[in-house]
Fold this protein.
Amino acid sequence: MVEAADSGSKPLLSPDGIRTDGRKIDEMRKVKMEVGLLKNCSGSAYIEQGKTKIIVAVHGPREAHPKHLAQPGRAILRTRYHMAPFSTSDRKSPAPSRREIEITKVIREALEPAVMLDEFPKTSIDVFIEVLQADAGTRSAGITAAALALAEAGIPMRDMVAAVAVGKLEGRVVMDLNEEEDEHGQADMPVAMMPNVNRITLLQLNGRLTRAEFEEGLSMARRGVDQLYEMQKQALREKYTSSEPAQEED
Amino acid sequence: MDSVNSISEAASLRLRDLNAVLATGVREDGRKLDEYRNIDIKTNLYEKADGSAMVRIGNTVAVAGIKIARGAPFPDTPNDGVLTVSLELLPHASPDFEPGPPDEGAIEMSRVVDRGLRESKSIKYNELCIIPGKSVWIIYVDVYALDHDGNLQDAAGLAALAAVLTAKLPEVKIEGDTVTELETKRPIPIVETPVPVTVAKVGDHLLVDPSAAEEEVSSVRVTMTTIESGVVASIQKSGSDSITMEEALKIYDLAFARAKEIRGKLTAALGVSPA
């Protein structure tokens, strides 16, 4: 078959494998993580991945509300993925879009395998992911930050969760798409994993991959998750080894 | 915010039973683990629609209708037509489905159908352009779930695909900015057949085309849409559990193999294949 070439626009990948922002094929954008920056929640985290900027707050475990949602044997995990109206080039309506509702669901299902919900019957653990600036990879960066915020909240977890989107540009599989690459590239595949138990908790694909590219994409995502996991550990260490007094728990 | 749909106590007991049955390599309805149910496809059911199809997978039924209208293109794709998919889980399909705004599950299912069809780039959107920047064909695909016995995702996706493959849009005469629709019609320009196949994980087993009873106890479902060449054009993992990388690749192999068989049935039933 013929792969639809991106006609008309400048190439997203130079012949020697350099991307429009100067990155190599398997190079992640610059990532910054910070843990525990909000005072009024159980846990919080901030992540910058390239120009994508996201803040996550975790409340709970707390009494499930409304009460009928409470489960006798375990906590419920509730998530909200939301984009700020100012996070995109054109103002985004603050009302949750169908896209945000779907992403909210897949993010919750990406975190659930890691969170030990059985430990907190009848309660709710609430994860609020607010995208302050969107430049592709928001669901994956949101998951990476949400796992950090859950860890800071002291919620027992089987493993951390980290996520990255791999994609395809000019027929090559690449790490961590930026917005331009996401818009004009040939594929976008966000992957979340639990790095120690080596399991996939989120998997989506938009675009076209051969079986070999799919396999290569999964391996590349695995390497990206490893890098993010190291940064997550570092961010948590910094929080707990800093000279500031520990935040009080309520 | 939506709460978790957990596997209930009763379901977890059923899972224990089912896991033991599946270990023998046969499912409750007699199928092998990698076996799809019978598929029945009917098209051109509604004269007033520009295309329509009803797909049965076992006892699961979905119907898709297409309406085509002229409209303005999106500013960022001035030379491309538009395809929009929406899906409703009718109360007819299950006592659990309520009329009214779709819940997150219905929204997800609808977006997965849409992605499989739209993002596969199998439809030649530039051939749906009438006057660049001004007028293009907009293809509305509305899918109804009519009866739910598991795997509504594939039923909805196949109904949408069959309707697109058999829909007709009018030829036009263009004079300046005036567009006149002619009596003659042409098919929607689609060059491949993106077929969705859903695989559910129940216990340690991967089950192709899950029934409602199997879905109830499954922890994860993965839908992969593949085209003739083996390219995978959309993936969605759904459900509160994880899979291994090996399972992801196994699911691809299952999805591609079953899609090939379904594609054969589809072209036989429709008497048309992509250009």
Summary: Residues 1-6 of chain B have pLDDT under 50 and may be disordered.
